[in-house]
Amino acid sequence: MSKSSSSCSSTCKDFPKEIPSYGDIGGIGVALAFIVTAWMVVVVLIGYYLTVFDPKLDPFRKEGTQKLSRYPNSIDYSVHELLQKIPGLGSNGGPRSARYLRLGAMLNACILMLADLQIFTALSILVGAYASMGCEIVAYHWQYMIYLAWLASVTHLAGLSFLRNHLANNGVKCYWRLAAMFFIQSLLSAAVGLATHFGDDPWLKSGGGRPAICYFKEHTEVSSNSFQSAVKIIILLVWGFFIRVAKMFQPFEGGLRKCAAQLHKKARNQRYETYDRNEWDFRHGIFKNVKNLWLGPWIIATLEVLSIQLDLFTSFLAEVYWLLFSIIWITIRLVNLRNLGNQDDSKWTFGQVLPVFLLIAPFATAVETFCSKQETPHNQEDPVNNDDIRGLGHTHTSGYRGVFFLGVLSYIEIGIYFVLSQRKAEGLAAPLIQIFVSVFAQLELQVFWVVSDLWLSNSRLNRTLKRTICGFVFLLLSAMSISANFVYQMVKNMALSTYAHG
């Protein structure tokens, strides 16, 4: 039974120094159930992307059909072309074989069960923690609960992306899951906000047995590591929930895809206008000549980069990546935090064995679905006119591939920044400034790459020299992209050191 908060007034000053055992949250079986489930979802999503996913299909098509998308995602299309060169990977875009149908059904059944399971596990641990907010739960277990609930919420949000086509055809199933996830995200965000009161070390060392509610009554230290971690977690919570919920609805994702296609079309038209008249035309005014000859490449590059960035934002590849690095970061934090806990939480009692055995259910459902006979669906749908489908021939150009690589590199850098723990607290402003500076710098490098590629492709240099210069410029921009964050950190550390000694 939880004690009332009013009985904790004396306990806030008189408490055990060691972290107590609390198997309902910190138990080894509970932790493994959450971690294994999350990584199962990661493996299933990666397997789906590598084997079954077809970027040319409309994600909001009717179930059992193969209607082509009017605005296919160029990023997923490019990756899909590479996967097709590897035996056994990628979909050929034609009618699906019985094996692929069974594999798709198996993955669908597995992820549906795992995702729904995480709704109730997340609600259980969050409600249980709030109910134990009196003297029963200490700050350590409150922070531990946040990581477990976050694992569950990330798992379910990833499942929503995976089940987008299924949920688009079943409105009731979609809406109750979204409502449940909104409630979970609200509880989790509030829990993260309360955790900013913990500060840095006392609740893990000398104050391990102090109830969490005692910290909630104290002032928040903005310069503490716990505040910085909370800021990062809230950013990721809001970002992950927004992007995945928005992608559940066709007007949002379809609108972004259409916008990306229109930006590319404008860039293509501007390219024709610029390079069809590569000399000064006295029939036009000075402004139009300057625009076509000197500003034209920069306009083209800006439109192309914005188009590719929108495609990268809406790609399934980006969703898989954000899920992967989120799970890695949470798992690292959870394992590091667990190593500081009470060793009694690692004992295998009945309450710890049961959650692990319950993990067998998704595997059994998946195997049963794969082994069952399935009737091949009728792939009949009102076909989309091929003339209305966005052309993707530009994905083979060096300009596109360079921006794609630099864009992926920027995503990796942002992921590394979140995953790696910072030794010194940075508060709220420093992490956000670093992210915005990094994003702006990456976009500038991508625009410069497209401009360089345009100038080289339209120059009169021989082919070998063009390739040499192009390769050198690309390596230079890649090196600048990688070193941008290191330079920022070095300058920031020098400024902090100067301020401290001043």
TrEMBL record:
* Membrane-crossing segments per the record: 25-52, 105-132, 144-163, 175-198, 227-246, 293-310, 316-336, 348-367, 402-420, 432-451, 471-488
Among InterPro entries, the record links this protein to: Elsinochrome_Biosynth-Asso
Q: Does the keyword DNA-binding apply?
A: no
Instruction: For this UniProt record, give its keywords in alphabetical order, as a comma-separated list.
Output: Membrane, Transmembrane, Transmembrane helix
Q: Which domain of life is it from?
A: Eukaryota
Q: What is this protein called?
A: Uncharacterized protein
